[in-house]
Q: What sequence folds into this?
């Protein structure tokens, strides 16, 4: 079977490093990045410049966008990267006849629900104050971002739907949870949103290799943590996602 040509945008980050190492043999990998990437062919350019990034998309089957600008409420940086840059990723994919974009979104698009009970208590580790069960927030709930960053991720999801509907681009959006440097949560908030490296890589593989009939979809990506607040059942039903690691062992005694 021919290997898919996968372009990783933002490959020098935490997720990108794990992805490149995990799938070095499975895909023909390349990177679009501001900083050099030694392990794969890398086109260095700023994603806010459409003309500059276009060469990276030539001959690509799937784009994995891992763009994740810091500064949660820094409008200038969010505008340049998560608004203009993300639009340029979709547009470059369209112009280059890319088949699919996997857009990495964030739980920040719905983290506003953390102001409400019982999600506030789940996120703060007040387990003695939560009921035996609670409704999990899913991709069907209205967006409720907690920051300018979260709102820009909503933009990326919505823009992907537009490109899917009007430009025949397959777009799969993944709301990534807490993907931690040492793959272990260190506080109650990360216990609730923990997404293991293994689970995340499995999900990205499923998205890249999903049937062409998926034109647009949105998935919550979080491990099967006991005290989670997000619903990953849609990922299981549509893609066959499974979670094999969770944060239960890291929960502090109640």
A:
């Amino acid at each position: 079977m021919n290997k898919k040509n996968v372009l990783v945008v933002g490959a020098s980050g935490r997720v990108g490093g794990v992805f490149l190492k995990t799938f070095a043999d499975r895909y023909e990998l390349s990177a679009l990045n501001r900083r050099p990437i030694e392990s794969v062919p890398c086109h260095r350019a700023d994603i806010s410049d459409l003309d500059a990034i276009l060469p990276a998309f030539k001959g690509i089957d799937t784009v994995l966008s891992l763009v994740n600008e810091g500064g949660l409420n820094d409008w200038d940086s969010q505008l340049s990267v998560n608004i203009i840059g993300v639009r340029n990723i979709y547009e470059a994919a369209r112009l280059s006849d890319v088949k699919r974009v996997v857009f990495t979104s964030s739980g920040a698009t719905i983290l506003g629900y953390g102001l409400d009970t019982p999600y506030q208590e789940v996120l703060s580790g007040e387990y003695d104050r939560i009921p035996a069960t609670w409704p999990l927030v899913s991709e069907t709930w209205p967006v409720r971002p907690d920051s300018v960053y979260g709102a820009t991720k909503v933009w990326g999801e919505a823009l992907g739907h537009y490109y899917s509907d009007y430009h025949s681009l397959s777009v799969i959006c993944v709301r990534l949870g807490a993907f931690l440097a040492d793959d272990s949560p260190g506080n109650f908030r990360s216990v609730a949103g923990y997404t293991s490296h293994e689970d995340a890589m499995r999900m990205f593989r499923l998205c890249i290799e999903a049937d062409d009939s998926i034109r647009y979809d949105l998935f919550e990506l979080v491990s099967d943590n006991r005290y989670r607040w997000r619903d990953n059942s849609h990922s299981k039903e549509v893609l066959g996602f499974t979670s094999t690691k969770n944060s239960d062992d890291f929960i502090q005694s109640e």
Notes: The domain at 5-250 is CATH 3.40.50.720 (Rossmann fold). The chain has one domain: 5-250. Residues 75-95 form the longest helix (21 residues).
